[in-house]
């Protein structure tokens, strides 16, 4: 196994800081989560692997250059806030102004700004359960 140099590992740590949400695009492992599974990066280890917490409960790491993930714009905090409002059943999630009002009332300012700045990604997430 060839380990990446320090500069490459540092670059990965800047690109995928703890809390970064990703979607699995490719992983060649018999125990891999299903393609399209979302997860949260917990850290990048010294070998450049993404230490993962997949939404399906798996913790299989991502090996850059072998596996492929797409970085989501939605942070873990925004995801939790969005799911809490969705699970409350208080509104149709496509009623953007009401979702933003409910988020504001709960002091979920990250979600308010996400909807404001990334409306297309938000709508795609509501329809498909993941960002593009």
Give unreliable regions as ranges: none
Structural class: alpha+beta
Per the CATH scheme, the topology name of the largest domain is SH3 type barrels
H/E series, N to C? Answer: HEEEEHHHH
Mean model confidence by pLDDT: 93
Give the number of DSSP strands: 4
Give the overall form. Answer: elongated
The fraction of residues assigned to DSSP E strands is 15-25%
CATH architecture of the largest domain: Roll
The biggest sheet amounts to: 4 strands, antiparallel
Helix percent reads 25-40%
Instruction: Give the distance, in angstroms, between the N- and C-terminal Cα atoms.
Output: 32 Å
Instruction: Report the total helices.
Output: 5
Number of structural domains: 2
Radius of gyration: 16 Å
Major sheet: order of its strands?
3-2-1-4
Task: Describe what you observe in this structure.
- By secondary structure, the chain is of the alpha+beta class.
- The chain has two domains: about 5-70, SH3 type barrels, CATH 2.30.30.40; about 75-130, no CATH class.
- It is about 40% helix and about 15% strand.
- It has a four-stranded antiparallel β-sheet with strand order 3-2-1-4.
- The radius of gyration is 16 Å and the shape is elongated.
- The mean pLDDT is about 95.
How do you describe this structure in short?
This protein has 132 residues and is an alpha+beta fold.
Which properties best describe this structure?
132 residues, alpha+beta, SH3 type barrels, 2 domains, 5 helices, 17% strand, elongated
């Amino acid at each position: 196994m060839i380990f990446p140099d320090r500069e490459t590992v540092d670059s990965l740590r800047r690109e995928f800081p703890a809390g970064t949400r990703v979607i699995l695009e490719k992983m060649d492992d018999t125990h891999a989560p299903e393609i399209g599974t979302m997860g949260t990066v917990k850290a990048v280890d010294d070998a450049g692997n993404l230490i993962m917490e997949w939404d399906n409960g798996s913790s299989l790491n991502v090996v850059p250059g072998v596996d492929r993930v797409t970085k989501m714009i939605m942070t873990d905090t925004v995801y939790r806030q969005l799911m809490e409002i969705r699970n409350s059943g208080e509104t149709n999630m496509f009623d953007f102004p009401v979702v933003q009002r409910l988020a504001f009332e709960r002091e979920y300012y990250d979600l308010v700004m996400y909807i404001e700045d990334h409306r297309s990604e938000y709508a795609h997430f509501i329809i498909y359960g993941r960002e593009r």
